[in-house]
């Protein structure tokens, strides 16, 4: 028996694929901003906060890093309602992605903060800057520059991982692919096309982050 | 209706966890073997061989694992093989792991000074002997920490095979959750079981990393 590939369905599916890709992009944009903000707070808290906070952040990082994202997602979407917290699929997905990414980026940002020489803080304090100003204006920009490549990799990994949120019926790219293949009975072709869309998204995202990083953080960012 | 006690839930989850462990091992061993082949292509002298291997690695690192599993699951039958979640899961994860392991080991090969190759050549070793006796042992040894780190990632990735119908821990937990309506407890336990499997390895990778940094 021969199986012949058929891409005839593609013309009618462009809209659905584009809509799905737009949702995937929305998810990763929100996750990147909130996740990075959280991880800066987390990394700062892990270094300078009270002991209890340091411990709590440490436990959070280990738990998130040593359990699958899919299980975290199910726990948040199916488990939290029994505590009275009921979330929309898309909100649950954003929450799960943000919390997951922050666990990885807290470690990355922390490594960046450690890489800034102590003398920078001392010099800024000697110039009369307040501790918060020292952190925001002196230490953080230098740290971000060091860790930027690692941060961009994490964003791309998270974007690829977001395919999983189709399992709680968020209408992103994978969800649209599931719907398309159920309608066209062309599973292999559908997933092939969508895989290529993901490849283009991840390559485009990486390019965008690198060139954007150069503009904001200055030269030397790869 | 059958009542599930806490121990029933835990026992069933642990029984299913055996498949998670088995799949992780199969994918790690398979991935190491295929990854070794990819590594040979990746560090070969021929430009096209290097390009093909880079493309292979970029393809697997630039697309979601879930899509790779779907393509396996729906693509294998086109080659005349029977669809079985186990085959698709094991093969999909093997190829996924091979790309990552090849890239990790390549970084180890790249980190070795050129003098290692030259010394091998001056001793009259040919290319394969150089690789086998001098280059690869050192490359594996300096990349032990990221290799263990990837194993953790691989164990967590097996969760995705539940979506193509492989009966591992997460799929079993979905079934148990549908019977007990206790998602908080069930998924909490699943997370705990994964944590118990992954955390020691994470710690081991960290120790290896610190030991490497101390040298």
> Which runs of chain A of at least 5 residues are low in confidence (pLDDT < 50)?
none
- Percent of residues in β-strands of chain A: under 5%
Structural class of chain B: mainly alpha
Q: For the residues shown, what is the average pLDDT of chain B?
A: 93
- Percent of residues of chain A in helical segments? over 70%
Structural shape of chain B: globular
CATH superfamily (homologous) name of chain B: MetI-like
- List the helices and strands of chain B in order: HHHHHHHHH
| Cα end-to-end separation of chain A | 50 Å
Rg calc of chain A? 21 Å
Second rung of CATH, namely the architecture of chain A: Orthogonal Bundle
CATH superfamily of chain A: MetI-like
Q: In what range is the share of β-strand residues of chain B? A: under 5%
Order of helices and strands of chain A: HHHHHHHH
Output the structural class of chain A: mainly alpha
Pfam families (chain A): BPD_transp_1 (PF00528)
Transmembrane segments (chain A): 20-45, 66-84, 90-113, 190-209
Keywords (chain A): Cell membrane, Membrane, Transmembrane, Transmembrane helix, Transport
Subcellular location (chain A): Cell inner membrane; Cell membrane
Care to describe what's here?
- The complex is a heterodimer of chains A (222) and B (215).
- Chain A has 222 residues and is mainly α.
- Chain A has a single domain, classed as MetI-like fold.
- Chain A is built from eight helices and no strands.
- Chain A has helices spanning 10-48, 51-65, 69-79, 89-115, 118-126, 131-161, 173-184, 187-217.
- The termini of chain A are far apart.
- Chain B is mainly alpha-helical and 215 residues long.
- Chain B has one domain: MetI-like fold.
- Chain B has nine helices and no strands.
- Chain B has helices at 6-42, 47-61, 65-75, 85-111, 114-122, 127-142, 144-157, 169-180, 183-214.
- In chain B, helix 1 packs across helix 4.
- Chain B is globular, with a radius of gyration of 21 Å.
- The model of chain B has no long low-confidence stretch (mean pLDDT 93).
- The interface between A and B is large, with 40 and 37 residues.
């Amino acid at each position: 028996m021969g199986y012949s590939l058929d891409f005839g369905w593609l013309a009618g599916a462009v809209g659905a694929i584009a809509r799905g890709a737009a949702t995937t992009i929305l998810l990763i944009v929100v996750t990147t901003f909130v996740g990075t903000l959280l991880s800066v707070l987390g990394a700062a808290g892990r270094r300078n906060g009270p002991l209890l906070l340091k411990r709590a952040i440490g436990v959070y990082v280990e738990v998130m890093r040593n359990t699958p994202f899919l299980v975290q997602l199910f726990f948040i979407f199916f488990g939290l309602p029994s505590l009275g917290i009921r979330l929309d699929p898309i909100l649950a997905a954003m929450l799960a992605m943000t919390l997951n990414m922050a666990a990885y980026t807290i470690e990355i940002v922390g490594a960046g903060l450690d890489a800034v020489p102590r003398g920078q803080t001392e010099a800024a304090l000697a110039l009369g800057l307040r501790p918060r100003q020292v952190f925001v204006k002196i230490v953080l920009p230098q740290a971000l520059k060091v860790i930027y490549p690692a941060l961009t990799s994490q964003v791309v990994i998270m974007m690829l991982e977001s395919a999983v949120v189709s399992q709680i019926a968020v209408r992103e790219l994978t969800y649209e692919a599931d719907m398309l293949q159920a309608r066209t009975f062309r599973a292999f072709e559908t997933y092939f096309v969508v895989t290529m869309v993901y490849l283009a998204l991840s390559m485009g995202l990486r390019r965008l982050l690198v060139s954007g990083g150069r503009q904001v953080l200055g030269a030397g960012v790869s | 209706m059958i009542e599930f006690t806490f121990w029933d839930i835990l026992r069933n989850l642990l029984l299913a966890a055996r498949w998670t462990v088995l799949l992780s091992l199969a994918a790690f061993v398979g991935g190491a073997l295929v990854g070794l082949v990819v590594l040979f292509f990746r560090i070969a002298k021929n430009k096209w061989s290097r390009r093909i291997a880079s493309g292979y690695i970029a393809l697997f690192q630039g697309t979601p694992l879930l899509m790779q599993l779907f393509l396996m699951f729906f693509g294998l039958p086109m080659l005349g093989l029977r669809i079985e979640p186990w085959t698709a899961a094991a093969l999909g994860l093997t190829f996924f792991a091979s790309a990552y392991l090849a890239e990790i080991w390549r970084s180890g090969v790249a980190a070795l000074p050129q003098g290692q190759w030259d010394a091998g050549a001056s001793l009259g070793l040919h290319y394969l002997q150089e690789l086998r006796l001098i280059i690869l042992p050192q490359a594996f040894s300096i990349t032990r920490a990221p290799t263990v780190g990837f194993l953790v990632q691989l164990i967590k990735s097996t969760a995705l095979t539940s979506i193509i119908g492989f009966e591992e821990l997460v799929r079993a937990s979905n079934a148990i959750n549908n019977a007990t309506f206790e998602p908080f407890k069930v998924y909490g336990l699943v997370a705990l079981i994964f944590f118990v499997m992954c955390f020691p390895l994470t710690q081991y990778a960290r120790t290896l990393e610190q030991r490497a940094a101390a040298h």
